[in-house]
Design a protein that fits this description.
single chain; alpha/beta; 5-stranded mixed β-sheet; 14 helices
């Protein structure tokens, strides 16, 4: 039995039930339909007989419109490069006015997106590159592009083993009532994302040097890795006493370029994670009255971050930072 046959049988049963009861309202309540629908069915039954109760054939929805022909796509791309500052609406109007094609602005935008030219900036970039190759006309933008092409892709900071490169940075936590100003000094290993952080009442080269000597160097010594290089920005806390301590410990100290904070992106990302996943939650749960309490919660979060929280990046691929950081010590024992 098809679905149409089932619907026809149900409607005929409702008709018979109403005749047996002699009460249209009761039959409609049993069937769960309205009387208006019942009278519509009865009108069709009286006019056409049982065949009139067959469900009506509804027109199928129109399918997906045919794709734009390839020659129209090439025409749209060509006109967009001839007038690179025009938007999709003006391009569609121009094509329609010239009798070249009837395409909607949304279709023009989809064609440009598929061609990799959805924005005016990208279309102008293609024009600049073409002019540089054919006419020799170099704009500042094309000159920078050619310079980048000669230099190759930008260098990426890489480290293969823990201790090869440790990124350091500071973060101003805020001025807390009853505690005062609080700064966070954070270290992140570039090879395994292992994180260490301490809270300070003020920033100075002496405090950064003490963090390096008392925290980082003993930690890496226990893990079995030599601490070879640290990367910092050009802040005053990473000069003077900090530089002297690095030389005394045989650690190479490098700095990022001015206004190139993304060079130190490993530790910047870690500080953002600590802010989002720890501090913004803790400050809504507790009222802190001492820096020691703040440090205690920070260390608890870093234990979770290093030991339990798997990282899905290309360096760890689902492992935890501790799995790599303490690997040498585990093998030695």
């Amino acid at each position: 039995m098809t679905l149409d046959d089932s619907i026809l049988g149900m409607r005929l049963r409702v008709m018979r039930r109403a005749q047996e009861l002699g009460n249209t309202s009761a039959a409609c309540r049993e069937a769960g339909i309205s009387r208006t629908r019942f009278y519509r069915w009865r009108h069709r039954f009286e006019r056409y007989g049982p065949d009139g109760l067959h469900p009506r054939r509804r027109q199928a929805r129109p399918g997906r419109p045919p794709q734009v022909p390839p020659h129209v796509e090439r025409l749209v791309v060509g006109v967009s490069l001839a007038w690179p500052t025009w938007g999709c609406g003006r391009l569609a109007a121009h094509l329609r006015h010239q009798g070249l094609a009837q395409v909607a602005p949304s279709t023009v935008q989809r064609i440009l997106r598929r061609a990799g030219l959805p924005t005016r900036r990208q279309r102008l970039g293609v024009l600049e590159a073409h002019s540089a190759r054919t006419v020799g006309l170099l704009t500042d933008r094309s000159r920078r592009q050619l310079q980048r092409a000669r230099l190759g892709p930008p260098r990426h900071i890489e480290a293969t083993t823990p201790g090869e490169l440790v990124c350091l940075d500071t973060f101003y936590l805020g001025k807390l009532k009853g505690v005062g100003k609080v700064w966070q000094l954070t270290a992140c290993d570039a090879a395994c994302s292992y994180g260490v952080a301490r809270l300070l009442p003020a920033l100075s080269a002496e405090s950064a040097a003490a963090f390096l000597r008392k925290v980082l160097v003993p930690l890496y010594r226990r893990a079995g890795w030599p601490l070879q290089r640290v990367l910092t920005d050009r802040g005053s806390e990473f000069k003077g006493a900090f530089d002297e301590r690095c030389r005394a410990l045989g650690i190479r100290h490098t700095r990022t370029k001015p206004r190139h904070a993304w060079t130190n992106g490993f530790v910047e990302r870690l500080q953002g994670t600590i802010l989002q996943e720890h501090w913004r939650i803790q400050f809504r749960r507790r009222y802190f009255t001492s820096r020691a309490a703040l440090q205690q919660t920070l260390e608890a979060f870093l234990r979770f971050y290093n030991d339990q929280r798997p990282h899905q990046g290309y360096r760890l691929r689902g492992q935890t930072p501790s799995a790599l950081f303490w690997g040498a010590a585990a093998v030695a024992s």
